[in-house]
Amino acid sequence: MRPSDTVNSSPEGKDNLRKAYEALSLTQKGLAEKANVSEDTVKRLLGTKECPNGVERWRVEKIAEVLNIKPTDIVNAKDWYPQLIPPEFEILIKDKTQIFCGRGFVFAAIEEFIKNNKSGYFQIIGDAGMGKSAIAAHYVVKNPGTICFFNIRADGKNSPDVFLKLIRQQLTQRWQLSDVADADLSALLIKANKQLSAGESLVIVVDALDEVDQDGNGNLLYLPMILPEKVYFILTRRPYTPAEQRLNISPSVPYQELDLRKYEQNSNDDVKEYIWQLLNSGEYQDGLQQWIQKQNNLSKNGFVETISAKSENNFMYLRCVLPAIAEGFYNVKPLDELPVGLQGYYNSHWRLMGMTNKPLPRNKIKIIYVMCALSSAVSRELIAKYSKQNNLTVEEVLKDWAQFLQKQEIYQPPRYRFYHESFRDFLQRQDIVQAAGVSLTEISAEVARNMIEGLEL
């Protein structure tokens, strides 16, 4: 946005402005003189003078600088910053934030890190399903102006070139940067840093570093060793070995790591809050309460305590199991027979879907593994083509496995991909592969051949 663009103060901003200049023992006139703006400008922001056309952004920045506050303390952040979320991530962010609660200890740690350091890297570590992507998405939504990138291996959005392209796009949109077509990340950050106003920071969220596809020995996504002041990266990833870290930074750059596995009690509190939220409101409320009533002497509190223990503090488990209970998938199962942990849930679902029956349902198994071999979202018709199964069988499999799939309806026909990479990891476990009687190499080769045949038609 341009400095000459106009904005209006928020109701909270009017109050913040008044408190800020009074705390410095300034009058409205004195504030105007120090900021080199008119007294009428101050009155418009305070709401004591009509402001039909708004106040220019540069004037708000001057006033905020004098008062040592942020422009967003005066103007609502959603009005101050342009909408920056790339279309490529809108569906993911919406999905990850539809049902979100807790994680306050994470956001407090991030805020404290930014407050106490001039720049730096803040990295969130956690196992699959612990809510890392949801934390990243929630932060982006609640902090307008945040730059973001979500590595999505299944969609091919996990390479340095795609990362740089979308980061450049967002930075250019936010500050109208010029002559940056060939700029690398470090150059972009330096240019953006020069545009920051007093009290303003540049925060870049990068989710799922473990899904990055990049050869060589440099930093993942070529993240800079040195950061300009007021530039912060919030990173998320699964646990890593020293060889997998690939984040070499200068000793002068602050770094902090928050390992979700070390915050069991905090996470357990958040898990219980999540269960209560689904139990007391939303589309699953009735189904969950009806299931509880069918159990012998089971209270809501007992349900919450037991499910939270079985979840092992894994939000992906809750996302799968709670809807399944509400929709009747476990109607014949008592509470003590529900699966334990995310891997336990995957195993349970695999068995309940008949994937271990004798004889093996090879057509259905092949469809699942063909989807596993595909690297991007694909339509039902293409799944049928690549697996060489009929549309009816494919439709049945997609319905049975709906809770593990993301249906992308922005495409026509709709496309499907695995909702979470942990399910793909489960399918590739040696014991599951052997029990299913499949060859991942052969299936991948067959999919590749079918794709080539399609291109040749």
TrEMBL record:
It comes from Anabaena azotica FACHB-119. Gene3D superfamilies: lambda repressor-like DNA-binding domains (1.10.260.40), P-loop containing nucleotide triphosphate hydrolases (3.40.50.300). InterPro entries: Cro/C1-type_HTH, Lambda_DNA-bd_dom_sf, P-loop_NTPase. PROSITE patterns: HTH_CROC1 (PS50943). Residues 17-74 form the HTH cro/C1-type domain. It comes from the Bacteria. It holds the Pfam family HTH_26. This is XRE family transcriptional regulator.
